[in-house]
Amino acid sequence: MTIDTRALGFGGGERAVYASDPWGSRGRLFPEDGSLTRSEFQRDRDRIVHTTAFRRLKHKTQVFISPDGDHYRTRLTHTIEVAQIARALARALKLDEDLAEGVALVHDFGHTPFGHTGEDALDEVMKPFGGFDHNAQSLRIVTKLERRYADFDGINLTWESLEGLVKHNGPLMTPDGKGLHGPVPQPIRDYCQLHDLELASFASLEAQVAAISDDIAYNTHDIDDGLRSGLLTFDMLEEVPFLAGMMKEVRDRYPGLEASRFAYEVTRRQITHMVEDVIGVAQVNLDTVRPHSAADVRAAGQVIATFSPEMAQTDRAIKKLLFSRIYRHPEIMRIREGASRIVTDLFAAYMNDPTLMRSHYWVNHISGLTDAARARHVSDYLAGMTDTYAIRVHGELFDQTPDLR
């Protein structure tokens, strides 16, 4: 994909007409005075970084359970990498970098311990009570569960940041109110009754670059962690022509390079090629759509910041490789089975005796709630756990805890 370098915003100051305007924000659910030193989106980003939920990402799994080693990605390191790519894309496209970074930093807040395994297990036990969705849980955290401010629950983010959190992967509803990917999770519908996030439209371009940055980051870094673990080999990467080409380029330029440096040279080229592809596609789409405001981006009826067809095919091939070689590897499946059991056991224990949730803010009022309301509080408590805390409390409540190493 060819890039028009003359149109790139390398200075970080100039915003395009289609960028989100921090001084023209639709505001916050609870009105607040503005800051003399920071834009509204800067304040959002800073609030996100100072949350308990952000700190907990340090001990939540990305792919490899934390006891496997200190050098594997956690949710926190993954999130920081996503934010770095999102900011780079936002700068190149002359967007609001703070909004793009904020959406990237908050996008994984709702993830459970033990990665997608924990989410799948929690969703299964929550099916009778409306299910569990990590995106909806992220919204609950920033609008309800973070309890820091005297005037409101949550952290009172701007409409634009909340929209980006909820819709960074695209619209959730059709214009006539039907869910595009099944029923819209109840927590999202409940919040939109108070503060309409316009679920039938696309999100801002800042949110779109955060979403594609997530794909770029986890594809690349799951390869890096897979090589580090030994579950992936360089020979396996040859299955994907794009990766084979990157490896040939590195071998030709640096013959005999040690494995760790070779891996990094490959993955950094992977990130560069994917980022440049997104920039090129976005420039073409912007020339076609010609949006004159962030509202025009939302009404465009298409994703503007995305991969080219060729890179999208590469993206699918990489995901297929990771799925077959890592995510479904027998050793990972054994660990996933144990992690799922921990989440399921804890859910049953807390539903049976909510007082076991000693630090949950609602524990003294939970006994009189309906089963559905109780289950939602239990899922809030479980989803907030780190891997290490979930393993520890399971060991306190049960005679035998699965070995996740």
TrEMBL record:
Gene Ontology molecular function: any one: dGTPase activity
Any Pfam family matching the protein: HD
Domain of life: Bacteria
A GO biological process held by the record: dGTP catabolic process
Annotated family: Belongs to the dGTPase family. Type 2 subfamily.
Organism of origin: Aliirhizobium smilacinae
Ranges for domain HD: 75-219
SMART domains: HDc
Keywords from the UniProt entry: Hydrolase
Protein name (record): Deoxyguanosinetriphosphate triphosphohydrolase-like protein
Family annotation (PROSITE patterns): HD
HAMAP family: dGTPase_type2
